[in-house]
Amino acid sequence: MTVCIAHDYCTQRGGAERVALTLLEAFDDSVLVTSLHESRRTFAGFGDHPVRTSHLQKYVVLRHDPRRAFPLLAHAWDRMTPPGSSAVICSSSGWAHGLRVPPGVRKLVYCHNPARWLYQAEDYFGDRSRAVAVAARSMSPRLRRWDRDAAESADLYVANSSAVARRIKAVYGIDAVVVNPPSALDPSGPRRPVPGVEPGYLLSVGRARGYKHIDVVAEAVARHGTARLVVVGGYDGVEALRNVTRLQDVSDDELRWLYANATAVVSLSHEDFGLTPVEGFGFGTPAVLLRDGGFLDSMVEGVTGVFAEAPTQEAFLEALERLPGSYDPERTRRHATRWTTAAFQRTVRALLAGDRTQVGAGA
């Protein structure tokens, strides 16, 4: 079976991109179709597979921030086709599921979230200009029709979390199968210390998006006085706060070291699933997480960490005070085995073949 993996755009190193790469590696002779590919800013593993891009690829400014291509992406996906594939898996947050497939080609959509730019626009465009937000609202009616047509063209919809499955039902009326994404960062891999970082910090890993609330976590740590925070990615300016270190362009070897030497992984993000705490669990590291979204699928309260009740400094600091205690690293590591790459790939291959018996089968 020749399988095409379609992903919105491969221009960054995020959880969705890790999933897309894991899907590519699940099938021999798989091909990647994406609107934009920036090899220097995303995972090098994509280069191990044939990559087909849209006509937007020639614009460097779009590869650096695909949100600038917002008015053009629907048209770009309408023009692309899977190259001689017998099946297609769309790794989609609202664009890739629009890939048109020939009759007889099975189309599975692995949905990270229904189009945030349509249904959670303030989150998506929160750090962009007012003009961009106004333009997005003006295009919404047409794009909603396009988006719903794209969703209805799938043979099977798969949600990455229970929260996303509920959103899919509310937006599209589709009952999605829930398959959590894997933790693709192998804890047994090599670790490289990060110069200037001493063990015993809180760790936040995330892109600069308003709904991530990384600035709230950083400001809370600065207020705390003794806690330290390492931010991988995140917002410009947080490094100016007391006891906050910001890192960019972190390798997987360095990321393993950061997870292994953190006191806790922290996030107040409204995540669709949220891979970073699961990655941390693999190193025996607990988490402080917002009681919301995909974190409800992955956290075992009191066993793998604690919840904050709201995305505020006060709620985060209150949760942080409850974190010290008897967290068993080995129990946390065992919990992480629910999200292995092998189990995820096995389930997706079964679903593509029309077999749902592997759903929920675990590691």
Strand and helix layout:
Layout: E1 3-7, H1 15-25, E2 31-34, E3 51-53, H2 60-64, H3 73-79, E4 87-92, E5 106-111, H4 116-119, H5 121-124, H6 130-152, E6 156-159, H7 162-172, E7 177-178, E8 201-206, H8 214-224, E9 229-233, E10 244-247, H9 252-260, E11 262-267, H10 275-281, E12 287-290, H11 295-298, E13 305-308, H12 313-322, H13 329-336, H14 341-352
Parallel strand pairs: 1-2, 1-4, 2-3, 4-5, 5-6, 6-7, 8-9, 8-11, 9-10, 11-12, 12-13
Number of domains: 2
Radius of gyration: 20 Å
Strand content: 15-25%
Major sheet: 7 strands, parallel
Number of helices: 14
End-to-end Cα distance: 24 Å
CATH structural fold name of the largest domain: Rossmann fold
Number of strands: 13
Q: Write out the CATH superfamily name of the largest domain.
A: Glycogen Phosphorylase B
Stretches where pLDDT falls below 50 for ≥5 residues?
none
**What helical percentage do the residues reach?**
25-40%
Look at the structure and give the CATH class of the largest domain. Answer: Alpha Beta
Biggest β-sheet: strands ordered side by side in the sheet: 3-2-1-4-5-6-7
N-to-C SSE string, H for helix and E for strand: EHEEHHEEHHHEHEEHEEHEHEHEHHH
CATH second-level architecture of the largest domain: 3-Layer(aba) Sandwich
